[in-house]
Amino acid sequence: MGTLSPQVVLVLPMMLLGLLAPQAAYGQPNFIIILADDVGWGDLGANWAETKETPHLDELAAEGMRFVDFHSAASTCSPSRASLLTGRLGARNGVTHNFAITSVGGLPLNETTLAEVLQDVGYSTGAIGKWHLGHHGRHHPSFRGFDYYFGIPYSNDMGCTDTPGYNLPPCPPCPRHSAAARVARKDCYTEVALPLFENVTIVQQPVNLSSLAARYAEEAARFIQRASDSGRPFFLYLALAHMHVPLVPPPLPPASGRGIYGAALSEMDALVGWIKQVTDSHGKGNTLLWFTGDNGPWAQKCELAGRVGPCVGAWQRQRGGSSAKQTTWEGGHRVPALAYWPGHIPAKRTSHALLSTLDIFPTLVALAGATLPPNRRFDGLDVSPVLFGWSDVGHKVLLHPNSGAAGKDGAIETLRLAQYKAFYTTGGAKACDGSIGPVEHHQPPLIFNLDRDIQEQEPLDVASREYQGVLPAISRAYAQALEDIATDNVSVADYSKDPAVTPCCNAQHVACRCQAPGTHIPMLDHHTGTRATRLCL
């Protein structure tokens, strides 16, 4: 992460803030989606009293709506992001597991992104931060509906840097000599440096993680300013590196007691607070700001992972293995979520509706006055009645796909029906202690009543009246869901790999390190697929 302290985040871009004037009232609202990475439900102070590092997010909750039963569409990076931007589960859009730095493909090109829909109805569109939906050719965000892109094409641990930060296991900095590059480290990238893109140009390789948060904040402000100057409504998708490892927080004050994770969480909170300040400077009421997470904490990172709050997945923990990221336990997909839109979304409101990141797509499409893409089915709902406080009803049924734990990638292993949650497969994810839960298939399924067992500790007794009463409805819902997916217009992602597509600003240097400013470097031309000259600043 970048060195964006709460003080810096408010002071650094003041020159930019001074230039911001309230924008004219549009018929179409502006949208800002802030997506945190690997953040836990309990990482928000408004959700979990033990968390003290999020005063700005807590203020956002007090001035807007907090969702306490809100879920990511998947429990790992690429599938979750694909679902947010398409409104469709990976079983439909084809993105069932993560893409690699050598991935040839990405989110299938026949899938329509939220940015493309909004662009077609006049929006200025920008993506800042992590992409992880393909970087080669037309899978790059510049060809998926975004007028502007600034960020890292995948996770911030998928390449070496000179500022490696905190990770488990710790990773070395990028090598500067060819001999060093041959030293392999488990779970570390040592051969290729992490790239930072502006549109299709690599502007820094390796990325300086110490300044990344500040750069994201600046670029977000510049995008908002440019959109305001253009007189067009805007959509900004801000996908933060926080709270994914490696963590690179500001220097810890003496005896702070917060630890590395807490310091990084405080930095993220300050960044979000500053984005809210920029947004408000354009006139309160013009912009819907929606904050949430892509999945739960990465448990195997131990003290560098977030808090799940009460969503501990106790049944799984008793058997070993993780019950957070990659899993379909609540800790894997129940994420913090806040919505802020003064004059439209009531303040100090807590929603208990069962909602998902899948709902962002159809909701924003409706609010923009656009129409959903034809010839496909969507898993998300238009939840604007919930946002406006007119209703507190969301999904009756919500599907949770396998995201790297036991079972087939993308397969629907768990189903939520009202307060009941049914597991057909459990296990397969690594915990902090190194244990991996045994793979278990459940037929009939394990069923938990989350209203009285949010810890998922004790499944219903199969012989009980409650279990026998709800099982037929769960079985029907599960069968109907599988049938609906099987008869839909389903896409298939290309997961093939080729080392030649790895982003590299200068292959002549160890780890693809860029030369001095002004040096021309070869890079893949996204229009022709051939090598072209790009400037690495």
Automatic annotation (TrEMBL):
Q: What is this protein called?
A: Arylsulfatase G
Q: Which family does the record assign? A: Belongs to the sulfatase family.
Major subcellular site:
other
Species the sequence originates in: Geococcyx californianus (Greater roadrunner)
The gene from which this protein is expressed is Arsg
What cofactor is needed? Ca(2+)
Q: What is its EC number?
A: 3.1.6.1, 3.1.6.15
Record Pfam families: Sulfatase (PF00884), Sulfatase_C (PF14707)
Please indicate if the UniProt record lists Cytoplasm as a keyword: no
Kindly list the GO CC terms recorded for this protein.
lysosome
